[in-house]
Amino acid sequence: MRGNTPWKVAVGLTAVALAAAGCTSEPAPPATPTDGSFIMSWTEPQNKLIPAATSETGGGVVIDALFTGLTNYAATDAKTEMANADSITSADGGTTWTVKLKSGWKWHDGTPVTAKNYVDAWNYAAYTPNGMINGTFFGDIKGYGDVTSVDPDEDGPKEAPKPAKDKMDGLKVVDDTTFEVTLSGPSNLWPIKVGYSAFMPLPDVFFTNPDAFGANPIGNGPFKMNGWTKNTELKVTRFDEYQGADKPKVKDVTFRVYSDDAASYEDVKNGTIDFQQQIPQAKIIGDLYKADFPSANSNKPVSSSSFLAMPTWLPGYNDPKVRQAISMAIDRKLIVEKIFNNTRIPMNGWVNPNMAGYKDGSCGEYCTFDAAKAKALFDSATTKPAELSIAYNGDASHKPWVDAVCNSIQTALGVPCVGKPFPTFGEFRTLVTTQKMTGMSRAGWQADYPHIENWLNPLLKTGASSNDGKFSDAAFDAKLKEADGTADLQAAQKLYQDAEAMLPALMPTIPLWHGSQQTVWSAKLQTVTINTFGELDLATVTVK
Amino acid sequence: MGRYALRRLLQAIPVFIGTTFLIWFLVWGLPGDPFAGRCGEKACPPAYVNYMTEKFGLNDPLPLQYLNYLKNLATGNFGQTFNGLEIGDLLAQAFPISMKLAVVAVLAEALIGITAGVLTGLRRGSFLDNLVLVSTLVLIAVPIFVIGIVARYAFGLASVSPEAPWTELIIPGLILGSGSLAYITRLTRVNIVENRRADYVRTAVAKGLAPGRVTGVHLLRNSMIPVVTWLGLDLGALMGGAIVTEGIFNIRGIGGLLFGAIARRESGIVVSIVAILVLVYLIVNLLVDLLYGVLDPRIRYE
């Protein structure tokens, strides 16, 4: 994100401009700037409200309000800042980390936040019988293998064997505010990773009844729960004993469930609610939202990008030349302009621009549209697929761009290309993960933490969890391993960039475009900052 | 009549079991793992998929799963959603809201529809008759989502607040009932026109009854049978939630819950809602049938 100032969100909007523009809003009673409340559009969480169980935005935004982990990502540039941790230091070049917590922090029920809370939470999350979605984030802690087990027949009736232990060797409580983490190998990225919500602590009360906790969580964050009407709205209120630097300036926040984004857009417009993170597609066309919200909108790249996953195990698709040719046959710029109304940014590399270590143009000519070269390259390949296809899930609006990409490829290469819809995302993902795809398939990635490593290891390393195309290259893996084990952060970043530089020749996946997010808010909200994850920064927002 | 009602209620049991069983199979019969799509664009870790599969008993054969579900249902336990909420709580939250909306819609249909139908039926060929004819045609032709979205956009209407007070439900209810309202108007009109020529109406007029009594008691009561059938079925249908209207006005009722549950493969919610809807339909149908006897004394139940 560093240096990408043009994307910073305008702050300090004046209410006068909005009133002049004829926006209607309830005349709010005069309130001190440290009080007040607002309502934001929300989606029902899909998992229990436990940090390690939540990976989607609806639950994530509430988890972020209720819990604070060791570190935070700064809202404007995603730099790591100490939050609950006083210091995270390593004396041996990145294998053993000593975490010192700030003292005086409390849970919402009044009990102190201790080192044990972190160690217990992490052990719970990593232990596979607990089935936490984010359990794999603890994979680089020593002893992770002891607390995990693999089901012998995957989804089948056989149960996975009980792991050997339920605690990782690498976690050790030193005293109330200090704990020690031993990794299985050196990694200087670790302090950056722990800002992700999977690493947040859990209070002792959680372990007495995890099921009940998920419906009424007790956190250590800037806000505490203040009632949850299921499928309708969730309310949080400021936790006045919160010790962090990001003390909120508003008192109450209501997250209201909307099933239809057009309904919530209208409600922001008439002042019923105050914030919509992503506006409906229909309002992007012709910049309608800018006319509706002249000074209360933002258009900002987010840390997510789209790719085409390649079935590298199939003959034809296993040839990098074919993959390069297909990539060169896609006119990204034209599709972004015609289909997405310029709300996507054509990609020329494998890393999102919001990441530390992002380098522009790392894909080079292979991500630049050139029909003639693409055709020549395709024809020079010995085995090539007779027909191309792009699989996608039909329950989201992918059809227009998939058809456009196919059309672009077909025109350039002279090979038939068809879009292949599957009814639901679940069915689509099942086919992808079980390697049943017979052609290309759409893929997306959203950063967990803002670093180039998060775009290489989980996506492209041999056997990685989200390596949909089963891409594998020994030299690339070795380079990643070298980077993972490098103690110096700058040197490691350089090595990751070197690894990315190997990718154009290998073309493991085809980069398409980076996402952007169009946000609107009501005249009531002031000092709106959208962080690099696309969420409203609850610490700085004020209401009129 | 008591025996008749009892027999109908007993018939409801096989209907109830049959429908829920079918829905259960259809929902679980969908291809793909219900948990595979729950981790965004990432692959779900196998530990999570295994945990959920075991927790929701999806390794058991389908008939066994269904029996377990029925067993829990008998004790009033609807089960849990994938995000750990009690399905019973969700239903208790959503049903009253959908019911309120349905009542508003049906009341609007009955009041406006029957009044307009009677007036036009009595004054066939008048300007009013033609005006109502055209407007009902428009209402029948234009889908609800068009009326709803246009109404929201044109009048800057706010969504219904979470508590869904009656006053805020009037406009969504009118929009929801608009199509049926038109049908009821036409239905009432046709019946009035036809029954006006009936012998018993001529008798009533001939024996010197006040015109108001002829219309209000003799004519209307006999013309109501098809209208009541329609209203009853409509009430049943609307209790199942109005996905479109609820979406447009963000009313947190059954429709939205059902739609979301189907999209997320939350079969526990889908089957529970269907189970309740089947009951609602059966009861409403029974009530409508019993009402026939009140409206037309010639109808007797054995």
Automatic annotation (TrEMBL), chain A:
SUPFAM superfamilies the record matches: Periplasmic binding protein-like II
GO BP annotations listed: peptide transport
GO MF, one example: peptide transmembrane transporter activity
The keyword Ion transport belongs to this UniProt entry's keyword annotation: no
Source taxon at top rank: Bacteria
Keywords: Signal
Residues of the Solute-binding protein family domain: 85-466
Matches recorded under PANTHER family: ABC TRANSPORTER SUBSTRATE-BINDING PROTEIN (PTHR30290:SF83), PERIPLASMIC BINDING COMPONENT OF ABC TRANSPORTER (PTHR30290)
Protein name: Peptide ABC transporter substrate-binding protein
Origin species: Catellatospora methionotrophica
From TrEMBL, chain B:
Gene3D superfamilies: MetI-like
Protein keywords: Cell membrane, Membrane, Transmembrane, Transmembrane helix, Transport
Membrane topology field: Multi-pass membrane protein
Top-level taxonomic group: Bacteria
Localization terms from the record: Cell membrane
Gene Ontology annotations for the cellular component aspect, listed alphabetically: plasma membrane
Residue stretches making up the ABC transmembrane type-1 domain: 95-288
Protein name as annotated: ABC transporter permease
One Gene Ontology biological process: transmembrane transport
Family: Belongs to the binding-protein-dependent transport system permease family.
Residue ranges of coiled coil: none
Transmembrane segments: 12-30, 97-119, 131-154, 166-187, 227-249, 269-295
